[in-house]
Amino acid sequence: MTRIWHFDPTPGAVNLLPDAVLERVRPAQRAVVFGGAGMSAESGIATFRDALSGALWSRFDAERLATPEAFLRDPALVWGWYEWRRMQALKAQPNPAHRAVVELAQRLPGLCVITQNVDDLHERAGSREVLHLHGSLHQARCFDCAAAHPLETMPDEPDGGRRLPPPRCAHCGGLVRPGVVWFGEMLLAEVLDVAFEASGACDLFLSIGTSGLVHPAAQLPALARRQGATLLHVNPQKPQGVADEDYCLLGPAGAILPLLLQQAWG
Ligand code: BJW
Ligand code: ZN
Predict the structure, then answer these.
(1) Which atom of ligand 1 is nearest to the CA of 214?
(2) Rounded distance, CA 83 to CA 163, Å?
(3) For residues 97 and 119, what is the distance between their CA atoms, to the nearest angstrom?
(4) Whose CA is nearest to atom 4 of ligand 1?
(5) Which residues contact 8 (CB under 8 A, 6 or more apart)?
(6) Which pLDDT score is estimated for 60?
(7) Is 134 one of the annotated active-site residues of the chain?
(8) Hey, whose CA ends up nearest to atom 57 of ligand 1?
């Protein structure tokens, strides 16, 4: 049976992590942190599958905007959504979960940080060499010729966002698109290969704040488990793909990761 532990948010509550978890974390030689939108949730960035209530896009399903077909059908709608999200990301600050990952890398040298997120909050917290499986909000390129297109920092967007026609490529005049990986697109092979290699070779795999729904990213935890790694999930809700031998720490990453550091090494 999956080993499940609940974080108690009551002020003054004593939250002691299971010894079995601490005993598996301390000696790890090759650890992987694999994060999703929940990692940035406490920085105020909506998770991918949250409803964007009140915003222009609240009536759209995010999964239906994150496709090349949606962009070609209505470029201003999709570009406006991404510019609004880029603004949210620029205004956000790293939270205790991002900072804990930096500290974890000091305790566990060789830690490999893999994220599905398109913000840069890990880097701004101080993590280096983060593998961005799904690209970045902060890099745009031409839809047609793939030339990089520099993005300006823009003034604040109105709260609800707006439609915005994408810029044109300086080289070929094509539409500029966000530098993210949409559904139906291939992930960058050089990023994916390193992520698979690290996951297949790790002894500890921390899966943090991801619903585990999107492939091929969702295959990484199973690969690590098959190769004998201990799996630790940190999430307020039990995510997809949890196996009997895994550990689930249920609660916010910004509270649980600092506890893990404190109790494993404090
Ligand atoms: C907290 C918290 C707190 C809240 N603390 N936690 C095999 C099987 C089935 C389907 C496929 C398959 N292989 C490929 C597919 C198709 C598709 C896919 O996976 N579809 C599924 C939806 C079924 N995959 C693809 O198309 C991929 N390409 C590909 O495989 O190419 C080859 C190919 C091509 C054509 C045909 C077949 C194969 C590309 C996937 C790219 C995904 N890109 C996106 C958008 C990026 C840009 C953007 O952001 O707009 O990436 S989709 C979206 O989901 C985004 C995210 O990175 C990704 C993962 O989401 P995540 O991070 O898990 O977020 P949420 O919101 O789902 O969950 C948040 C979690 O946080 C929750 O669990 C909360 O509880 C938790 N949480 N607060 C900790 N405080
Ligand atoms: Zn071009």
Answers:
(1) 19
(2) 9
(3) 14
(4) 38
(5) 15
(6) 79
(7) yes
(8) 116
Catalytic site residue from 98, 122, 132, 134? 134
Distance (angstroms) between ligand 2 centre and the Cα of 253 equals 40
Ligand at shortest distance from the CA of 218: 1
The angle that helices 96-107 and 253-265 make with each other, rounded to 10 degrees, is 30
| Spans in the chain with pLDDT lower than 50 | none
What pLDDT score was predicted for residue 40?
Answer: 97
Q: How far apart are the first and last CA of the chain?
A: 30
Structural domains in the chain, CATH included, are 1-44+94-134+186-266 (3.40.50.1220), 46-91+136-180 (3.30.1600.10)
Q: Assess contact for 53 and 133: CB atoms under 8 A.
A: no
State the ligand closest to the CA atom of 141: 2
pTM score of the predicted model: 0.97
pLDDT of amino acid 158: 62
Segment holding 83, helix H or strand E: helix 75-91
How confident is the model at residue 164, as a pLDDT? 93
Angle between helical axes of 189-201 and 219-226 (0-180°, round to 10) = 30
